[in-house]
Amino acid sequence: MKKQWVLATGNKGKVKEMSELLNSFAIEVLPQSQFDVSEVAETGTTFVENAIIKARHAAKVTGLPAIADDSGLEVDFLNGQPGIYSSRFSGENATDQENIDLLLNKLEGVGKEQRGARFQCVLVYLRHELDPTPVICQGTWHGSITESVQGENGFGYDPVFWVESEQCTSAQLSKQRKGELSHRGKALTMLVALLKEQLS
Description:
Elements: E1 3-7, H1 12-22, E2 27-31, H2 47-62, E3 66-75, H3 96-106, E4 116-126, E5 135-145, E6 161-163, E7 168-169, H4 175-181, H5 183-199
Helix pairs in contact: 4-5
């Protein structure tokens, strides 16, 4: 019988991705929405703190082991902004386009050499609500910010995140290639490697 874990997200894409990766461990990944887990205030000041807050909340409500991630974009010229506020850069219920518009506005006239940026993803796994030693995995994806939107794929800041090795934006990559390169892909690979050690 498969073990059940809860993923602290309502994002179906993330649930599918995680399910495929953990299938070989006989683990069934369920979205927190299946248990009516409410959204929890992300009051942390770092990606790690916010991911732990989300995982602990999901584990507490469901009684299951929990996985959560927190991710965002850091821009050199903006001293690491938008960072943990990436999804709400231009306001609480901001759209991706509003966030992109604000970012490009803040970088107007800034030269290419100062437009360096990176996506960060922190994944946290808690065995139970009170787990004192959460498993923490971090993935980083380096790039730079373009001056205009390019590409239709992805979400968030993907259309303005330039990937030098591919000579295109993240939003112009295939889903498979993005998974190989991305911050989330790297963090997931690390998590699976650690789980192999612990669950084998």
